[in-house]
Structure formats: structure tokens, C-alpha cells
Queue: 4 jobs
Job 1
Amino acid sequence: MESDKAQDGRPARHPYGRDPDAIERPVFAAVIRPHCSLGRTGFTVVMGGCCLVSLVTSIVFLTQGFWPIAGFFGLDMLALWLALSLSLRRGRSFEEVMISQIEILLARVSHRGERSEWRFNPLWSRLHKVEDEEYGLQSLAIVSRGQRVLVARDASPPERETIADGMTRALAEVKKGF
């Protein structure tokens, strides 16, 4: 009976010289998060400052008898709070891209925690780029067997270009191995 270990205690080599675990090991992996201009502290500072300015201005108008204006300042603060909290919440979403010898995995997790996954065969897949001379890489998509899925939707053009370069190199490496 053959042993899984060589005589010196190291794991036995594959008969063809290949590592059987390498097939599932990622050649490329990235987590892509949207740019979020404000964190929790920034949100508090901006809202506090705006509310203070709104309160002071409302008091000035109230003392002069223009009482309806105070209500409009309250509506403005409500709209600002709603927009900033929505932006802060959306910052929790992300995308994961993983390319191995046997598959491309693209997973999107929304700000609510909902997960969507797409799996592609790397040998049948290619990247589709839409570039603009002035603004850079506008969109990046994985295309495979008639299916097209956008990658790095929330990334800036330079970030999208970096991701595209890494994915292009990884796909070339995978296809070279076959």
C-alpha cells in the first residue's frame, strides 16, 4: 500500500508534478467597496454643524416674525439627514471577485446583506471594457456564453483600471495553463 507521505515525511508529489490543491487556489481575489465620503463620525459632525447653523438662522427669522421659514429649515435638515444616512448605509455594500483555475466567482452583497453570485468558466470568459479617452475606463464586464455581468460598478475609473489589469493577467495565466 502506498503512503501519502514521502520517506522524509514531506507530502508526496503528484505523479505529473502538479499540485492538486492549486486548481482551487485563487489566482486573483479582490473585494471592491464603494467610495464613501463620510464615515459615522463625519456624518455626526456634518449633521451637527448644519443643524446648528439652521437653528441659529431659524431663531433670527423667528424673532423678525418670519415663522414659516423655521419650518422650511427643519425640512431641509430632514432631507439632508435622509440623504446622508442613505449614503452611509449604501457604503456597506461590496463586491467580491475571485478567479481560480476552475471558475470565476463574482459575488455582490447589498447594504441589506442580500448576496447575489455569478459563476463562470474562465476558459469561456473574457473581459469587456468600455473606455473613454477623457474619463478612463467607464465599465468593466465579464462576458461568458451570452451572459454579461458588470464588475466594479461603484469603483472610480482608475480603480476599475487596476482591477481590470489584475483580472486580465489572472485570466491569461489560467488560460495559459490549459
Job 2
Amino acid sequence: MKTKYLALLIAAIGGSLSFGASIDGLDAAYSKATTVYNGTSGDTLSVSSPTTISLNNAYSWTMAFTISGLGATSNSDVGLLFTYNTGSYKNLEGLGFQLTESGNLTLCAGGFAYGGNPAASSPWKTQTFSGYSASTPLTLFYTFNRGNVSISAMLGDDTSTLTTLGDLSSSAAFSNQNMTQINFSAKDTTGNTWSVPNGITGEYTLNNFDLYTAVLTEEQMKAYALSAVPEPAAASLGLLGLGILLMRRRRA
């Protein structure tokens, strides 16, 4: 009996050391826990007061999240997430990807309603990583900095891979509008408010998601990405606990 409790305790400690993601001294305004999307499902995160996420060119914020288990796609882009104003502006910005069987991962990002015109759209801009393994966590940062939009990415715990994919727009501010909804596993190009499971969805695991009312520095991005990837010691503890349980069952 003591062996069983010890095994469970070891596994729990390992899991607790590798749960979620965080940045020291900075609290997230909105967070979402681990969620698995199978390519036909999705869900939403409502964004409202007391912390309002403004799309005015006087405000700045960053969405930070880690994904893994990306599924191979066809030639068309599939969605990671899309941001919405559920009023007249609707689609705002989206992130998607393509992943080939050989491991070429292309990230794409684009938006709608640039310049305050709901009918206008920006071209999807892309960045490709070669030799990507679907099991490698990928941490993404979407930064809205007073109307300037950029995407940054980091692979696993390799801080040297932290790359900014480039500015998407310098005119992505929408008067006094707010972002009111974030849709996960979605890429909707219709201009209509997205609802599960409509739109084009992507297959992946959302490890963690946090929205900060600040522009993250490169050091903060690295710290967030590293905290989202299980430490070797934590992973070993978890495996050790599971191993003890399996051995105990075999003996029984």
C-alpha cells in the first residue's frame, strides 16, 4: 500500500513541475488549460470586463500559448485560433498552419477589417520550419502593439529558435472596438461569427494559453516557452512513478 502511495506521489510531483506556463512577476488577464482538438472540434474563450482587451492604437497585449501533437494537413491551411469582435467587425486576426508528412511546418497568419473596413483582408503571411517533429512543443506569441501586429515562435526548449515571423500590419487598430472572443482550432474566412464546430479546424493539443496586457520582451518569451516545456527531471519523476505502479501490478 505504501508503495502505491509513493508511486502516485512521485507521479504527481513530476506532473506539477511541468504544468502550465508562466512569467515571473507578470499575471495573465485570461488563461486556458490543456485542451485536445481532434480536427473537428473547437471551443471559445470569452474576453470581457473587468479586463477589456482593446483594439485601439493606444493599447498593447500579447497572446502566448504552446501547442503540440500537430496533425499532418492537406494542402490547405487549417486553423489554430481566430480572434473576434462579435459585433460589426467580427473576424480580426487568425493563426493557422500546414504540416507535411515529411515535417515541413508552415505557420500562417492574417487578418480581416484592416483599416476599419470589415470587407477588406490582408494576405496570409507565412514562415516554414523544416524537419519539424509533431511531438515537439511549439510556443507562439501574437503581439498587438498599438496597432502593430507581429508573430513570434519558439521550438521546444531551444531558445536559439525564437523567431519573429514579421510584422503583419501597421494599421490593425480598430477605433474603439474590443476583442471579445478567441476561438481555438478555427480559421473562418466568411466574416460571420464562428461557432463550434464550423470553419476549418486544426488537429493539435493546446498545452497552455495566456493573454497578457503587455508586450513581452524576448527574455519573457523565452521564460514562458521554457516553463511550458516539461523539465527532464519532472518528466523522469512522472515516468518513475508510473514505472513503479506497473511493476507493482505485474507482481500482483
Job 3
Amino acid sequence: MDVAAQAKVTSHFLHRLNPDISACDLNTSFSSIEASRQWERSEVFKRIANVRDFGVFNNFAGTGIPEFGAFNLIYGWNYSGKTTLSRLFRCLEVASLHPDYPDAKFNLSHGDGVGRDHEFGTPTTVRVFNEDFRKEHLLWDDSSGFNPILLLGSENIEKQAALKTKFAELNDIREVRKAAAAECTRLVEKIKNAETECASQLVRELPVGRIDRRHVNQISDSWKGALPEPLDDESYKAERLKVGADQKEELPLLKVDLKPHGEQWKRAVALLAEQVGSPATLSRLAESSEIGNWVQTGLHIHREVTRCEFCEGPLSPERVASLNAHFSSAFTELKSRISKASEWVSDRTIKIDGNVYGRAFFYADLHREHGEAGAALAKARDVFNSALDELLDLLLQKDDNPFQVLTAPSEVPSLTDLSDAAARFQTLIDANNRRTREFRSERDAAVSRLKVHYVTVAMRKIDLCNLNRKIEDLKTADRSVEEKITALETEIIALQAELSESTKGAEAINEALRRSFGKEDIQVRVVDDKFVLMRANRPAKNLSEGERTAIAFCYFITKLLENGNELADTIVYIDDPISSLDSHHLLHVNAFLKDTFLKHDSGATPQYSCLAKQVFVSTHNYEFFHLTWEWMTKGKSQGFSSAFMVERSDANGLISSKLIECPKSILKFRSEYLFLYHQLAAYVATPSNDLMVIFNLGNMARRFMEGYLAFKFMESEGVDKKLPLIITDTVHCERARKFMHFYSHTHSRGGGMKLPDMAEALAAISSILDGVRNHDPVHYRALQTAA
């Protein structure tokens, strides 16, 4: 299309938005357009023949409903499947299945006799406005605004060919880059999986709390590309024992008397050979130590008596004197020295308490040393004590008979072995006590060493260094490819800019915003061939949902003429254009749709036609439905307009939707509230076990009661608070409340898996209607009259 033709198309669209534009600028391009806008059934969809496995449309056949018209209005509550239906048409637009429904199959009957199905064998010009369109084309979080509209003006064949070649080259490079990126991702994932598995092992086997692969990565990163060696088996077992040990009590120091004892030993040995013999010695007492000791013990009680206390025989003074002479002071003094020497020998005996230094009081990794050091100490102690015991036995013999001369070993027992063994065992005690004092830090150190060990084993298993080298090589290559892509994209952008008429697109969006929503505070401006949203000369931020919907819709309308596309050759599907908008915007959108798609030829007999090839509009808003239906039915010719409803059921646990002819009751009542009353009253008058009827009763009952409460009490926070004022019987009130909540599908989708029976539904709805009748009989009579 040349510049002049493009300008006329854009000017035509602006004229639809603003009739003040002079018609003289349009007349050269309208003749062919006007001819193509006549309603021809051979050029449009007639009906949806069948749909399978497309979301809630799991098995639908549309042969039993009226054919589509030039204008088609579809009504359905939220969650009924309206958006899913729009995605079916979106599949035809993009010639591919929706990613959520890869196994879907569908077929739409067409006036030319060739069906349009999931194989996409026959192209069709379809444009769909729905949530998917918003997500694809409007990047709200992008600082540059949203994707620019490309309205081609004069076409430069040479530049178009160059653009095509560069796109092909770019696609080839991107495919290569994509494959390299996939390999890089695979290698990275292999490392991540190994790190995750290793982290799980650390959590299982070590007291490390909650950790993840990032902790493993920190350890491996610290190696700077050089993997350490894992612990050997002995070191590994030792570290495991440290980690698994319980904290021990500190042990007392080992007390072993190692003072020199040569002089004491020699004096004790000398006592064995010392003699106390004299002329007064009594041979009988000297020969028998037992008799001598017995006599000596009893001598002091016979000092003042004349008879023996044992035998009562006469005890002469001469006999007493001889006995006293036998037990002289030298004798007594010798026995005293022998007694002291015996005490010294006994005290010098080495005693080690096994209950204090038992194996159980030492850490498990010290048990081996405990066995060896303990055995050496016991041996040295026994050797030393054995020499002392021998000397002590001789001293006791000497004490029994001081007159006896005994021979003892002259060699003094050595302290060397005992000292070495005691020092070794004390070193073991010190190590054990140090472990106790530093228990936490030692265990933490052991945990750290084991962590490194486990990570080392895991990373060696996947050859981490080699994988990292491959990843770095791929990244290096990717940077080179990225430079090529950037250069190509720069060239492509330059070519596109030369072919672009973006400013006209911006003008169209701004005019659409003003005309359809009355918005002049938000404007679209072209900056560097990109659209930027501005509010009062500043980038627009924090857009409301209503503003986003308005901009998205206006953007969609302008794209209908993108790249020279003719509106008369396009089938348009618009899903919920007034979602999130208030009633003021609702009127604007309705008027805008009418002005965009309905042609009115004034005259004696007004004529109406569709400016697009075919139009579909779906909505959940009852008021918008009737406003749109009013102008869609301006044309009275056969097939000019058709109304449908998306109906959803959850019967037998299967969630399913279908498109049906719009019920006459919906078309009859302009008020949704009046429609709901009519449906509920009709059910009470003629109860039915039809699941398709019962399915929607809970939802309709709740919406009806919300409407009543809204204008009676200005209540907008649910029905629970005011419902007892309407249904005064507590049992009936609770039954109605539970019925509305449990079976209200827009309130809780979980309730849709179970349906009430006829008796339950009839009782609940009767309570609701009786409650309204009793609460406001005048209003109820008005409802009956209107119905």
C-alpha cells in the first residue's frame, strides 16, 4: 500500500473516531470498502461445529443452536468459560493451539463450505481482544511503555527485501544461540542438581540445620577452580566420631608421687638388719615373736601386781625386772622406727582410681590411646608397687620380731618408667579436657571439614571444573553471538523505523481514549519510534485496572488497521471489554463499539450494516449486555444479530461448558435483578430435578439476595449480616445461607463438585422468596407484576 492509500485508511479510522474530519479526505478510498461491508454469509463463521479438550469446553457440539450473525453477543457469568471461548478464536488468529490446551480439537463451520479447525489449513483474518492480548502486547512494567503499532505507509521494496533477509539471518543465529543456551542450561542444571543432592546429604548426615544448594555453591566457589582431595578413611571416621560425640566432663589431674625416695628406701632397708640384743634378753621371747609381742602388750598391767593376770601364778619382782630389761628403750625405739618406715612405704604406694579415669569418660576417638597409655601406666605402677610391697612385708616381719635380722634388696626401685607412663596418660587427660573445653568449636570444625569432604566428593563425581570450563566457553561464545544479534537488531530497527508510520498510530490511540473513555489526562507519545504513556507530561505510573483496560482496548482497536489491514475483511472477537470499569466507562465503551462497528445509513428507511466482516462481543455485565443488544438489533434482516450464553455445569464431578442460545428471559428483562427473581420464582412454581437447572440456583439466589440487600440496606459486604432481618426463622435462615454459599459457583468453585437435590433447592429458594415477600410486600408485588 502506498503512502496515499495508507493515509486514507488511517484517516478513515480517525474519521470514525471524530466525525468533524472532512469527508473530502476519504472519498477516494471508500468505494471499495463500502462494497465489502455488505453482510455476506459466505464470508463468515456460521457456528462452532464441535470442540474437544479445550479447557471447560471438553466435548461441545453446536449443531443445535442458531447460526452466528453479523453481530454476535455472548453472555456468561464469571468462570463460565467466556475467556476460554475467546481463546478458541485466538487460535485461529495466530494459527496455533493455545499452550494450555495442546491436545485440543475444534471445527468452526464457515460460509464458504471449508471448515476452520485445529489443523489451521485455511487462513482466516481474525482479531481477538482478551486477557491474552493484554499480556502479549502491553508491557506495563516496561519503562518504554508497550509494543509500538506498526502502520506501514509507503513501502520500499528494496528495504523490505533487506528486512526479510536480515530477519532470516537473525532467526538462524538465534536458533544456534538457542541450542547453545540449552546446552549451557543443561550443564548448569547438572551442577545445580548435584549441589541440591549434596545439600540434602549434608542435612541428613550433619547437624547443619536447613541449608540448600547455595551453601554447597559457596564452598565450591571458594576453591577457585581447584578441587581439594577428600578425607582419607581414617580421617573421615575420626571427624565423624567428633561430630557424633556427646560432651564429656572434665577429668581431674593424675596424681602420682614422683618425688625421689632413695634416702627413705635406704633407711627402711637398714632397719631390717638392725639388732637390739643385750645380756638381759630373754631367749624365749626373742625366739618367739608371737609370745614376745603378747608379753610386751600385757607388761604394763603387771607393774603393781604380784600374781600373773593370765595364770594367777606368783609374779616375783625379779621376774618383772627381767621382763622390763628385755623390752628396753632401744627395743621400743626400733619398733617405732619400723612402724614409721612401714607407714612411709604404704603411703608411697601408687593408687589410681579406675572409676575416675575409665574408658567411658574419654571421647571415642581417644579410646585407642586410652587403652595403650592406660596399660603402660598400669604396668609401671605395678612394677613400682611390687618393690614397695616386698619391702613392706619385710618391715612387718621385722616389726613382729625386732631381734630378727632380715635381708632386703639393696636396689632402689626406678621412677623413670612410672614417670613416662604417667606423663603419657596425663597428656591423654589434657587432650580429653581440652576437647571438653573446646567442644563446640571442635565439633563445628569437624562439621566444616566434613562439609568440605562431602562437597568435594559430590563435585568430583560430576567433574565440576570441566563443567565450569564448558559453561564459560559457551558464555564466551554467546557474548560473541549476542554482539552479532545486537548489530542485526539495530539494522532491523533502523529499517523498521523507515517503514513505520507510528505517529498515526499514536494519534489513533489518543483519539480512541478520548472518544471511548473521555480520557485526556493519559496520552500516548512516540519517543524514538516507541510508544510511551504520559500523564501530565510525565511517564504514567500506577495505572488503575480500569485505565489499563481502556488503553488495552483502544490499542486493540487501532491494531485492527495495522499493516494496511481492512476492517471489512476482519472477524473481530472482543471478550469483556468493560472488565474493571465503572458504569460511566461502560456507557463510553458501548457507544464506542457501536460507532466503530455499526454503520447507519440515514434516509426514509434507515439501513444498518456491520463495518467488520463479523463481530463477537462477550460480557458478564448484564447492563452492558442489554445496552449492546439494543444497537446490535437495529438491523432487522435475517442473520444480522444473534445472542448466546455460555453455560457451565459441574454435574457428576465433570466441569463442562457449552454455548447455547441466549434464554428469552435474559433478553426480556433489562435488569439482572428482575431476571434473577423471574428464574427463582419459575423454579418454585415448577420444580425440576434437571441438573442443568439446579446447577445455577445457588449462584442466582446469592446474587438476587445481594441485589435486594444492596438497595434496602446499602449492604455490600455479603448477605450474612442482614439475612436474619429478611428470613426471621433461624432454621430457614441458616438453610438459605448455607445453600447460597455452598452452591454459589462464583463464590467458591469447590462447591461446584456437589449439586443440591430438588427438595433442598426448593426449600432454600422458597425461604428466600418468602422472606422478601414478608419483609417488603409492596416491592414483592412489583416484582410479580413486572414478571
Job 4
Amino acid sequence: MPAWHEFVEAMVEEIPSYQDKKYGSMARAALWLLAEVGEGDIFTKAQLREAFPDVAQIDRRLRDLRDHGWKIDTSRDDPSLLQQEQRFVTRGADVWIPGRSKVPKHKASLTAAQRAKVLHDDNYLCRSCGVGAGEAYEDGGGIELAKLNASRRRVLRSDDVDATEYQLVTECRRCGTGGGADREVDLGALLELVEALSPLEQRLFAKWIDADQRTFSPIEKVWGIYRTLPQESRSEVAQAIKDVTG
């Protein structure tokens, strides 16, 4: 029987190189964690980006590993970490193996109470197209009336969590079947757009949030992104606006 260190070396040799570009960015990030960091050890975003100068969104691909059982802690999960540090806690699925990088399905069943709360929080409006329950679509496509339901939307957070999560949001059946539930909302990018607005535009945006309704304005793009957010993220933006405007 080979010595333990020889056995470990043999196992390491079976893991592909993270520099092999035939693998996707997420798989390469996983291989980098195994080869260069190691379970239980700390790394920084700077080290990750230095290892993948050719991948523009390597941070996001690393976050995607959490959907496959990889545990990567931030300073919010582990107070001993600095804000720029993360800890590779445990490995998950071998996402570099064909068939193992498919995103796991999230639980689809919701209780009637959960569904009712989501619709209430969203003012009974589809957060993708704005149609209300029982209303006809503006395109006049036949006599179809909107039917609303609660679905999951992928939200990329930008705070200390720096992770992706799924939040519940109201969508009509037409938007849901059109792939709206698979849309990813970058909350950090939206908050940056909000901060870049003039004080007057921020106050106007705050009024839109309070009324949950907009009027025509040059900041329509910002509002358009905001109105698609699930209730949890809308509350976060509302708080950010209050902090800015006092």
C-alpha cells in the first residue's frame, strides 16, 4: 500500500488544471480553490482576479459555486475575516465533470399564505411588465387577462454578503413563461446608478418608491430596473434612498 503522501499526490494529479481554458469559468474557479487555496484557508478577491485576468466576471462565477454545494464564507459569515477576505470552507460538486455543473432546482412549492404575501407586497402588479391582476395587456393581444403568481428571481447582492440568492417576486403568467423567472438582477449595479443620480432625481425616485408608481422622466432606466426587484431588494433600495436624502 502506498504511503499516505503518495496517495494524496495521486489524487491531486487527477484534478485538472485551473489554467485549462477548455473548462468554463466556474469550473476553473473551483479548480483554483482546490489547487491554490485549499479547504479551510483564506483568499482575497485580488488573488482570485490575478489568477484569472482573462475572465471579466470571475467573482460572479465563484459565487455560482454556492449553488453546487461549495461553502465559501465572507466576513458576514465569519466575523474573523476582513472585508476583502473569503474562506474556502468545503468543496461541493465536481463542476468540471460534464453533467455536474447544472444548477440545482430550487424548491418550487409555496404555501397559499406565502403566495398571498408576495402578491400583497408587490401591490398585485407583475414586476416584469407592470400589468395588474385581471387587467388586459396593453398590446391588445386577444382577450387574455393577466393572471399573477409568485416566482423566484435571482438577485446578485453587493454588500458584505457578496452572494447570489433567490427572492420571491410577482409575475404574470406571460412573463413567467417567457423566462422572466430566470432573470438575474444585479442589486449592486442598480444602487450604483441610484447613487449617481442628482439630488433632485434621487428625491423624485424616492417619491416613486413611496407610491410604487413612476411618471415619465429621464431616470426611467433606473426605475425600470427597480420595479423588477423582489420586495426584499426594493426595501433595500428604499432604505438606501432614505439614507441619502435624509
